[in-house]
Structure prediction request, 317 residues.
Amino acid sequence: MSSCWPRAWADKPIGVAFKRHPEDFVVTETLSFELSGEGEHLFVQIEKTNHSTPEVARLLARVHGIGPVDVGYAGMKDKHAVTTQWFSLRGVCELNREGLGSGGLEVLACARHSQKLRRGQLAANSFEITLREHCDGGAEAQLEVLKTRGAPNYFGEQRFGWNNLTEAERWLKHRRRSRTSKFKQGLYLSVLRSFLFNEVLAGRVAAQNWDRPIDGDVLVEGEPTGPLWGRGRSATSGQAAHLERAALESHLQISEGLEYAGVDQGRRPLMLRAEEFSWEIGPGEIVTRFSLRPGGYATSFLGEVFRFLRPDENGSF
Prediction:
């Protein structure tokens, strides 16, 4: 969770070591549909360790002699982790297992389907995250509150990288004259929309009404939402519209740039709750297990309670 955006209720987060080993962050995705067993697309379920999703997609395309556009996946997964996800390969009759090598990639299953796997076609992501070196006796009580109240649905630090936001703002200013790949353009647009959403959510957190509907809210399945900015007028009104405008007032260049870039406005829930949330607290470590809906960040969820100690922080919180 970025220090730029406020926590909702955990004023004193518990310091923990995060991602000391790839096995400390395990995630498995569940598709939102059943594979038919026939069709021109070969679906491959791969467990990967210390490999990014784009790296694996490029490898699959190269060893099977197909274009990058013929490889599909439902979402990006962390690199420094153990992650299980599906890829689809158009026009591939048989998987080239030898071409994948043996370094951190394991094929778990193969099946056929009639359509390409596309972004967002997930039912959930399941996590097992081990947090180490904690020295706070209040973890149990904090986790109970997190289970009950949930957390603000911030886009996580992974979305912004170390310099993505700066690069995205620079690109937006010179978009018409820029020679930027479609992949990078899509990344920059996502980063900018995520930033504006987090700013609006931070305003709602500060107003202490992020987890309940207020006057003028746009509700999805009964939950309040925030804007994924783009073309079209915001559907909010009243108090919700006032808070939204206040949060975006200092970012008009970004919001107007997104409108001119041609992306359509969308909505995203402000609240993030976990399913099947459990934990085990042992000597020096906490093992958490839970599932999140697509688009939810485990780091944002746990970041409401914990402050993550990175390996480069020299062992001090």
User: Anything to note?
Assistant: The domain at 156-272 is CATH 3.30.2340.10 (Pseudouridine synthase). The radius of gyration is 21 Å.
